[in-house]
Amino acid sequence: MDDCALLISSCDGYADLWTPFFNLLHKNWPDCPFPVFLITEEKRPVIDHVTPLALGKNLDWSSLLLKALDAVGSTCVLFMLEDFFLREPIDTQRILHLLGQMKNDALNMLRVTPNRGPNRGIDGKEFGEISREAPYRVSTQAAFWRVTVLKNLLVAGESAWQFEMYGSTRSRDLANFVAVWQDALTYRHHVVERGKWFPWEYNRFKKMNIGVDIKARPPMSLGETLIWITRKKLSPLYQWIKKYRKGRDRLL
Length: 252
Hints:
Layout: E1 4-9, H1 18-28, E2 36-40, E3 50-54, H2 61-72, E4 76-81, H3 92-104, E5 109-111, E6 127-129, E7 143-146, H4 147-153, H5 160-170, E8 177-180, E9 192-193, E10 196-197, H6 199-206, H7 222-251
Parallel strand pairs: 1-2, 1-4, 2-3, 5-8
Antiparallel strand pairs: 4-7, 5-7, 6-8, 9-10
């Protein structure tokens, strides 16, 4: 699969996550068919079957990713973040089938998790369409990307959050953005938020003897956890209000 690579987005400030991430990747996906690349700044970790891309210090998130895509040189990437810890074995044949579907159907992006998933079905497919107006149509969730499309949606200087927000708007002129209905990569959720572990993920993974450095990164405090949960619960309401106001403004 020389025309596709597994690209892990990271930076040196998250180096403590690399050991547990790749231990779980090698455990749950030992027959990964793609060359694996890790985005770093200056660090060059020695990890089996992983090529680090030391791309330079003091670059923003989008600039690092643009340089990484040039360095990898493939026409397609399976993109994911370093805090997407795999929890269950990966079905390689299903992953390859999805990649084949992406090529056969000329898809621009195929998200391999239903997190921010499809909202329109496609007959006979295990994935559905993400409509042009859908929030987070462009996302940092794990996905197959056509490299030319991903590069066109990236703007140097933007953070990952800005890429999701503004990239979703920029993507509205592009068709064929889809997501699976059921997880193909089994990470379920990121394990770190704003530089700190979710407490439940911290407790879960530090017991697994996979190299979690308990001194390098603290878990969220109780107060921080409650604030995150509250915002998470209110997010659907906020999106509904935003959509309602937008529809109302069109009628006025």
